[in-house]
UniProtKB/TrEMBL annotation, chain A:
The gene is exp8. GO terms for molecular function: ABC-type oligopeptide transporter activity; ATP binding; ATP hydrolysis activity. Signal peptide: none annotated. The chain crosses the membrane at residues 38-55, 75-94, 151-173, 179-198, 262-283, 289-308. SMART domains: AAA. One of its GO terms (cellular component) is plasma membrane. Residues 39-323 form the ABC transmembrane type-1 domain. The keyword Transport applies. This is Exp8. InterPro entries: AAA+_ATPase (IPR003593), ABC1_TM_dom (IPR011527), ABC1_TM_sf (IPR036640), ABC_transporter-like_ATP-bd (IPR003439), ABC_transporter-like_CS (IPR017871), P-loop_NTPase (IPR027417), Type_1_exporter (IPR039421).
Length: 599, 583
């Protein structure tokens, strides 16, 4: 999945320890809702640690007792075998439970994070989506959460490690105090090794990951832009650049391999041998004056192993700690984001009845610095149409954005039916304000779903009627499954005109009181073009309409046309009035009709 | 095992690395035999008590030495073998990349970006696994497994060995079976993950629509349903995954029980010592991994093999568009003589273009108009040699374009594509994409011609501003103008603009067209457009419909012809003529 994720710049930042601790704490707290699973897993792993200590002890006693004296009866031997077999079965059960409980707890907890993120996204203002590429938002919800399971597992491994170290130490202490002290003396060595490994490897690892994402981003981009590269004959240069990144990545991977071979399991094995040697020396000294039972040697060799093994496992997983913290920092950036969608007044309960719209001295800026709307005022009476005209960047779309409450504005007032727009609950606004977007977005599903969306109150009949109303039925009826024809990703199988008609039908089905239109600039084949013009006219019937027009002909009959320039209204009036003024509108109109005509 | 043969070229290339690696593996396996035996011997020595002489110290020294040697040998093989795997992946990735860069349109229509990415990541990973984990487990199971078995028989007791290892092959079987099951379950889990991904993607892309219709709660509910299904699917994965440890424990436990019963009997009878039994148990422990590895080996090899075949197949695909032997490297002039009888896209049975004939002398301007899907872009694609198989001849400079090298042809043409793809580098390097040696004044000149210079000056870092995710987000019109600048910077003999002005407003369009007119007096320009005002000044305008030229002529002639062009034009004119009669 890393391939889909070319935005991992977080790998290059080094988070301060305090920040890491904070993120860790918060990530761990996600697990609290699944306490049962996690606590179950912890209890099971503790039980496992005890069984792991107990089983060698069975063998030890067998060796030191009956075997040492060479007087074991068949019954004794079979009995010991049976006990060991039963112990093994219990061990297997405990292992399964511990693994399964943990993985299901982690699974549920991480899916919870996904739900939280997804829900949060819907509360964010449009500005967030303007500034954040869709791919990176998606990656937060899916890929980043994915790493959390492994992240929690680091802590599980830590607990398992502590359990087995403690139980092993206790068991050794019971057997031979001095020997257990000798082994315990190696704990500082292990701590230092773990600390050193974590410190060193996390650096190498981060570097490797950032190179990998760079590599995949480059690969992805080169495939997508391959025709440009070929048409401009840049294959060799692009290949050289790719080769550089490819080599860099190989270098970081080698560094990672070297680090792991030096410090990971082979190193732990070395320390194990040292510890074992130390204990054996102690036993050797003891054996000069007394007997050291063979079973005791056996049991120490196993205990020392279970003392070290889980640590290797833990170190192996440390990289997931890094992954988790990085992913967590990105997840929390969304969860903590307070660029929320605009809020309505508390207790807002007004209802839109007439559909009168008024802007009073509205000024607005996206970033708090550069104003894109200055002192905009206008009134649209119920059922009338107002047209907004202007060049790209003149502020037309911003008027729609504040009107639709996609963005909060701080100066002036927007009134609907003479009441502040913030007095209406957002649900009411969504129901009564219909927006038709420039690029009609279709969802995966079927045609009927795309017309009614999630509103199940809209019947099949109403869906059909809506489609007929905007004349979308003519092409829908021709589809294999008519209204249940599949719509693939983005509705790619339909022409932009057809998509537009479906989105008209969607708006008709929702039946809003006020219509906000952003006319498509995209060129549409002529056949649908006339259908669309028809559709637009029908949509406007009986609705207050605020329309951005790119083709001036669309809004010729508007009761009022506003010409915007750099966020200000520079001309206002009906079509005829504006033509008579011979100002900006006149110029634009002439240009669009083609100069040829006026000769 | 076929995959090892298929990768033979690589092992041969990295002969030294793999010989050292495998030797280190053998050495590790041999050294690994020492500690279990030494512990057993020491246990026997200590058990007798009243230790005298230096034998015990000698054995302890041996143990310590073995530990140090283990560390060194392990370091050596890990570096060699894992490093070799990483290098293999890198080499294959380089090859794939270069291959992609050579492939034609047909190839990229057959393979979507996501699939190619998957080949370059997942498949390469599976292949490198063969060269890493595959080699390791292969060598490990044979060398470690074999030597341990022999050691058990020699040092302990051959009868005990033969009886006690009976359950061990089950480990290999279990690893293989569970591995297969896990793989199947995991594929389903991956599919569930993609569904989740698609759902999120769609909601984010359609966020405005969802907000507009006030359906955020419903959308969240829909997401939650998908999550619930995902949890259920992952439950299966977790269940299978959780089985690995317990199954291993049971099988190993069985050998222990045998060791206790049969080994205990042997000790009791005095056939072997307790120390030998201790060694035996330790050897059994050492066998766990090799046995398990055999099972895993099958899975690694199977996946690696399938992946290698997929990658190999990709690499075998040939571009249809290639340079002829001794192809021409220069164009004498840039007159275009387009004589196409018919063209059909590969794999399609619908004729896309038919009877497209036109002459475009150097220095002239050609306009191509028509409705969406009429075939306008295809005319351009053939000129750029994205496809070489058609009936007819397209000539530039009096020679078939297929007689030139692709480099020569492409260098003569500046192309502004419909989808204005920009690269995630800065503005400057996007403009001088085809000519990195151009200096700032040249870049600015191109930007001015394309009416984007003033916009660039508004960006935070001006010409150093990064484009794309990490930098400024450009409007459609800005992207189009940057693509135009990218095409005009080399002052190409032929400039082709494929619907390159659709997102700029009328005023800017006029400005750009005037700029081009002035800069490209004696050069050839082809403009494909939807908006008629873009082409009205062209020397010839072709109206294309359903793959044929239906009308042609200058703007005036076409108006006089009273066909589609005139109709389109009058549609725009309608309002104004009404206006005139009103007045």
């Amino acid at each position: 999945m890393a391939a889909k994720n070319p935005y991992e710049s977080a790998w290059n930042q080094h988070l301060p320890v305090k920040e890491q601790m904070k993120i860790t704490g918060r990530l761990l707290s996600f697990a609290r809702y699944y306490k049962k699973q996690f606590v179950g897993a912890i209890i099971m792993s503790f039980a496992l640690a005890i069984i792991n200590i107990w089983l060698p002890r069975v063998i030890q006693q067998f060796m030191n007792g009956a075997l040492a004296k060479h007087n074991a009866t068949t019954a004794v031997i079979l009995g010991v075998g049976l006990v060991y077999a039963l112990g093994t079965i219990v061990k297997a059960l405990v292992q399964f439970c511990s693994n399964f409980f943990f993985s299901m707890g982690a699974e549920r907890a991480l899916e919870d994070v996904r739900r939280q993120l997804f829900t949060k996204l819907h509360t964010l203002g449009m500005r967030y989506f303007d500034l954040t590429p869709a791919g990176s938002v998606v990656s937060r919800v899916t890929n980043d959460t994915m790493t959390l399971g492994d992240f929690w597992n680091v802590f599980m491994s830590l607990l398992v490690g502590i359990f087995s170290i403690v139980t092993a130490l206790v068991a050794m202490y019971v057997n031979n105090k001095t020997a257990s002290w000798i082994v315990a003396a190696f704990i500082p060595v292990l701590l230092v090794a773990t600390w050193f490994y974590n410190r060193y490897s996390s650096k190498v690892y981060r570097h490797m990951r950032s190179k990998l994402s760079e590599l995949n981003a480059k690969l992805n981009e080169s495939i997508e832009g391959v025709s440009i590269i070929q048409n401009f004959e840049q294959q060799k240069r692009v290949d050289r650049e790719f080769e550089d990144v490819n080599n860099d990545y190989l270098d970081t991977r080698r560094a990672m391999i070297k680090t792991n071979s030096l410090l990971l399991s082979s190193f732990l094995n070395l320390v194990y041998v040292f510890a074992l040697t130390a204990v054996l020396i102690h036993f050797g000294i003891m054996a000069q004056t007394a007997v050291v039972a063979a079973g005791t040697v056996y049991v120490f060799s196993t205990y020392i192993q279970s003392f070290f093994n889980p640590l290797g496992n833990l170190m192996d997983q440390l990289q997931f700690f890094q992954d988790g913290v990085v992913a967590g920092s990105r997840i929390f950036r969304i969860l903590d984001n307070n660029e929320l969608a605009p809020q309505q007044n508390p207790g807002a309960n007004a209802v839109v009845r007439e559909g009168k719209v008024e802007f009073r001295h509205v000024s607005f800026s996206y970033d708090g610095e550069n104003e894109v709307l200055h002192d905009i005022s206008f009134v649209v009476q119920p059922g009338e149409t107002i047209g907004l005209v202007g060049h790209t960047g003149s502020g037309k779309s911003s008027i729609i954005n504040v009107m639709m409450r996609f963005y909060e504005f701080y100066h002036g007032q927007i009134l609907i039916d003479d009441r502040d727009i913030r007095d209406y609950p957002i649900e009411e606004l969504r129901k009564k304000l219909g927006l038709v977007l420039q690029d009609s977005f279709l969802f995966y599903g079927d045609i009927a779903f795309n017309i009614r969306l999630f509103n199940d109150k809209i019947t099949d009949d109403e869906v059909k009627k809506a489609a007929q109303f905007v004349q979308a039925d003519s092409f829908i009826e021709k589809l294999p499954n008519t209204y249940h024809a599949r719509v693939i990703e983005g509705g790619a199988q339909f022409s932009s005109g057809q998509r537009q008609l479906i989105s008209f039908a969607r708006t008709v089905a929702a039946d809003p009181k006020i219509l906000v239109l952003d006319e498509a600039t995209a060129n549409i084949d002529t056949e649908t073009e006339s259908l669309i013009q028809d559709g637009l006219r029908k949509l406007r019937q009986g609705r207050t309409t605020i329309a951005i027009a790119h083709r001036l002909s669309t809004i010729r009959d508007a009761s009022q046309i506003l010409v915007l320039d750099k966020g200000r209204i520079v001309e206002a009036g009906t079509h005829d009035e504006l033509i008579a003024q011979k100002g900006k509108y006149y110029d634009m109109y002439r240009l669009q009709m083609g100069e040829k005509v006026e000769e | 095992m076929g995959i090892f043969k298929k990768l033979g070229w690589y092992f041969k290339q990295e002969k030294k690395r793999y010989i050292i690696g495998v030797l280190a593996l053998v050495a590790t396996a041999l050294v690994n035999l020492i500690p279990p035996r030494v512990i057993g011997i020491l246990a026997d020595l200590f058990d007798q008590g009243h230790l005298t002489g230096s034998a015990a110290w000698w054995w302890i020294g041996t143990l310590l030495t073995a530990g140090i040697l283990q560390y060194l040998f392990r370091f050596a093989w890990r570096n060699m073998i894992w490093g070799g795997a990483a290098k293999l992946e890198k080499q294959l990735r380089s090859r794939l990349f270069w291959h992609f860069m050579q492939m034609d349109d047909t190839f990229f229509q057959r393979h979507r970006t996501g699939d190619l990415m998957a080949h370059a990541t997942n498949d390469l990973n599976a292949v490198q696994n063969v060269a890493g984990a595959g080699i390791l487990t292969f060598a490990d199971s044979i060398i470690t497994g074999g030597s341990t078995l022999i050691a058990m028989m020699i040092f302990v007791d051959w009868r005990l060995t033969l009886v006690a290892i009976i359950p061990l092959p089950l480990l290999a079987v279990a690893a293989r079976r569970l591995g297969m099951k896990l793989h199947a379950a995991f594929s389903e889990s991956q599919a569930a993950f993609s569904r989740l991904n698609d759902k999120t993607q769609e909601s984010v892309s359609g966020i405005k629509v969802i907000k507009t219709f006030g359906q955020d709660k419903e959308d969240v509910a829909d997401f939650n349903r998908i999550v619930d299904r995902t949890i259920n699917i992952n439950k299966r994965v977790n269940r299978i995954d959780s089985l690995f440890d317990p199954v291993t424990s049971i099988i190993i436990g069985a050998t222990y029980v045998i060791a206790i019963i049969y080994g205990g009997t042997l000790v009791n009878a005095g056939t072997i010592t307790i120390g030998s039994l201790i060694s035996f148990v330790a050897y059994v422990n050492a066998l766990v991994w090799p046995m398990f590895a055999i099972g895993r080996l099958f899975n690694v090899i199977e996946r690696g093999n399938a992946s290698y075949d997929r990658v190999h197949e990709l690499l075998q695909e040939k571009s249809e568009v290639v340079n002829k032997p001794h192809a021409l490297t220069t164009l004498s002039h840039s007159n275009i003589d387009y004589a196409l009888d018919s063209f059909t896209y590969p794999g399609s049975d619908k004729v896309t273009l038919q009877d497209i004939h036109f002459d475009l002398p150097e220095g002239h301007q050609l306009g191509i108009v028509g409705r969406v899907g009429a075939g306008k872009t295809t005319i351009i694609k053939l000129l750029l040699r994205e496809f070489d198989h058609y009936d007819g001849v397209i000539k530039i400079g009096g020679r078939d374009i297929r007689d030139y090298t692709l480099e020569a042809l492409h260098n003569a043409i500046g192309y502004v594509p419909q989808d204005n793809f920009l690269f995630s580098t800065d503005v400057r390097n996007n403009i001088r994409f085809s000519a990195y040696d151009k200096d700032q004044p040249a870049v600015e000149a191109a930007a001015k011609t394309s009416a984007i210079h003033d916009d660039i000056l508004q960006f935070a870092d001006q010409y150093d501003t990064l484009v794309g995710e990490k930098g400024v987000s450009l409007s459609g019109g800005q992207k189009q103008r940057l693509s135009i600048a990218r095409a005009v910077i080399t002052e190409p003999d032929i400039l082709i603009m494929d619907d390159a002005l659709s997102a700029v407003d009328a005023k800017t369009e006029e400005q750009i067209l005037e700029g081009l007119q002035a800069d490209r007096q004696d050069k050839t320009t082809i403009i494909v457009a939807q908006r008629l005002s873009s082409v009205m000044h062209a020397d010839e305008i072709l109206v294309v419909d359903d793959g044929r030229i239906t009308e042609r002529g200058t703007h005036d002639q076409l108006l006089a012809d009273n066909g589609w062009y005139a109709e389109m034009w009058s549609e725009q004119q309608l309002t104004q003529s009404l206006e005139r009669s009103d007045a």
